[in-house]
Amino acid sequence: MTKTLVKYFLATSALYVIPITAHAQESSSNKSQIEDIIVTARKTAESLQNAPVSITAFSQDFLENQNIQQVDKIAQFTPNLIISRQPSSLTAASVMIRGVGQTEPSAVAEPGVGMYLDGVYIARTGGAILDLVDLERVEVLRGPQGTLFGRNTIGGAVQLVSRAPTDELHAEQKLGYGSFDSWYSKTTLNTGYIAGSPFKATLSYLHRQKDGWVDNKLTPGSRDPNALNSDAIWVRVRGDLSEQLRVDYSFDWNDRKGAPPYFQFVAGTDNVINYFSRSESLGGDPFIFSRKRLRDGLQEGFTDRNGKYRWDSRAKTQGHSLTLQYEASDALTLKSISAYRKFDQDTILGLSGNGDLLGVVFDGTSPTLTSVQRVTTYQGNNAPQKQKQYSQELQATGTIGDFNYVLGGYYFHEKANEFNRQFLTIVTPVAGLPFLGFPADVADAVQALNPGLDLIGVNAFPPGHFGGTADSYALFGQASWRPSALAGRLEITGGLRHTWDKKTIFIDNDGDGISDVNGKDRFTNLSWLASASYKITEDVMAYARVSTGYKSGGFNPRTTVLNPFDPEKVTSYEGGVKADWFDRRLRTNIALYRTDYKDRQINQFASGTGGATSIILNAGRATIQGIEFEATAVPVEGLTINGSFGYTDPKFKRFDFRDPATNQIIDVADEARFSNVPEWSWNAGAQYDFPSLGFGELLARVDYSWRSRMYFFPLDRVNIFNTEVSSPSQGTLSARLTLSELAVGDTGAKAEISLWGENLANNDKLAYGIDFGGLGFGGAYFAEPRSFGVDVKFSY
């Protein structure tokens, strides 16, 4: 790795011998005041403090200072936002806002929180975690955004806005090295206006790689769990063709290879633990079972679809977008956003937490009907998982008298498919073989031929092959009235969006490429918004808002029969106050909300002879209420203190459940939990910009975030290890020290160096758990332990 790092450093450093005009980047922020962030939450640019909706926004400076390279890290600083990486994937995430979202990562599952890159919808949770190469800001919009953003934003939306090209030639090079042999290099070149043309561009390249922090004794460090090797390219081209017409082209590409997190076996039935514990006595690897975070262990690989035995997962994402904007007048601006995205994933599941185990299994070819074979709790290869999408949005915005308006139309088409090859061992007492479909005389024969054998395994290789299409059309409009008679202090807003959805699905139960199940359906929805805000003073605004959201219906792919479900809908009531005090030295934003949930899509995860399966029902009616509070203070020049907390109180009013013992539908609302939803979350941070040192600027920052316990499944009666695989309350402490504005010779270039530490308290943070209760076990992976590193940046 060291030779590769040196070679890469020399290659990228060649940029610095090119004579480049120094680019002076003046900060518009006053160190004695709080930064004012411009957001586009309502499709038009406005101050964060003027938008009547609960928003957390992160500026370019904050993202750069924190060195945020993946979207999941922003959850540490955002109340009521949870972003959990799925265990076996390098790019899949469960995103929840105010208790609303989606945990199913399949290729045809709809998210509940919309993710957008430069206004383009990222439709799959499977491709939600991508490298953030060159961002201007991130906006987290809480609450349903059904009017302007549309379907599948019932929890909210996360907007990623890339940095626009600069007018002048400018270059940046950033390098970093840290614990677990992790390192990265990011190169950004702004061309300025090219050869006197109206076009300017930004080209950015990011390479990241690290060894895993769990030592898998079966692999080298570069293939250990949590290892990563990632390349990302972002291109932004802007053309100011006239004073009225502007064109923007965006391209992003991300190629990731790495090993999934180490998925530990943390809970199991007595039979399962006893059975796999016999592996070592049969000549296999020892069985590993621990409820504490492990730093070394054994993790088996899997033979993929091409016959290669592997441990790694791979994922590629790519996106193109073309935006045309024409400012006809103050009363009318037209915008077109055309986009194409695709996603391809090949995942080794890595969900056993053990090495090459051996066990006694049923073998119909053996004289004793048994043999010692390789066994596993659960393993497989999810490949190919593919998705591609095309979208077209048209907008008209402007101002007419006291009215601001947004009108638009939207079209979206998607095609996705997925093939899962699974390998699992079902453990049963010999007398239990008939419950798995074996004739009773076979069970008797096994017992007679194997005296004293109490437990036996049955190896299964169930395939899972499915796919589908989605087409969506929408018309939307929103208008805001600010009567000039009240000097613009009052704003009343109303909006509507009508959506038409069409879905298809196929399920191939045999994995032979022939569809066994086909389905199609159509859905329509009318979402609406009404809000009012009033500026009590120039710096204090109160608002009230009622909005609705809609998550499309569809079909459950993780079953052998057609399992359709209807859309789910929410109505949210929100009130808040946004205020700046003492000449923008103190900012306090507070929001209270209540969400009425109707026809909630409940994913009842199961496991058994069919592998990882589920049933999706419109089983839930619920209410969610809570509060969000964010504060930032600059008590003295140079010192910034910030903090926030979120409280989420979800309650099911109805939860329909089919009792397998009686086959009757019963209401179990009193025992159901919301999955992936902590009740409390908060964070606090402090940053001090020291007085100028003469030769540079020194900045010190410390952050702490905390959340309460989080469960991953709604019903303990279905998922028997729900408590054991839940994520306990946990905190994260991080710190960073940065020395910037260091002159590099007399070239006009600047250098910056940062020292950082993450999870400084070294907490054993259980990050995500899965209950394979039907197979008799539960597992989880843990977050990264304490780590340190250094970043260096050069700006020309």
When the domains are counted, the total is 1
Report mean pLDDT, rounded to a whole number.
Answer: 91
Q: Give the radius of gyration.
A: 27 Å
Structural class: mainly beta
Strand percentage: over 45%
List the helices and strands and how they pair.
Blueprint: H1 2-13, E1 38-39, E2 46-47, E3 55-59, H2 60-66, E4 81-85, E5 93-97, E6 100-102, E7 113-117, E8 120-122, E9 135-142, E10 156-162, E11 170-178, E12 182-193, E13 199-210, E14 215-216, E15 228-240, E16 245-258, E17 264-268, H3 270-276, E18 296-297, E19 302-303, E20 309-310, E21 313-329, E22 332-348, E23 357-362, E24 370-375, E25 379-400, E26 403-429, H4 440-449, E27 455-460, E28 463-481, E29 490-508, E30 517-537, E31 540-551, E32 554-555, E33 564-565, E34 568-581, E35 586-608, E36 611-633, E37 639-659, E38 664-667, E39 680-689, E40 697-707, E41 730-744, E42 749-758, E43 766-772, E44 777-782, E45 787-795
Attribute tags:
796 residues, mainly beta, Maltoporin, Chain A, 22-stranded antiparallel β-barrel, five-stranded mixed sheet, 4 helices, 45 strands, globular, disordered N terminus
Structure in a nutshell:
It is built from four helices and 45 strands. The protein has 796 residues and is mainly beta.
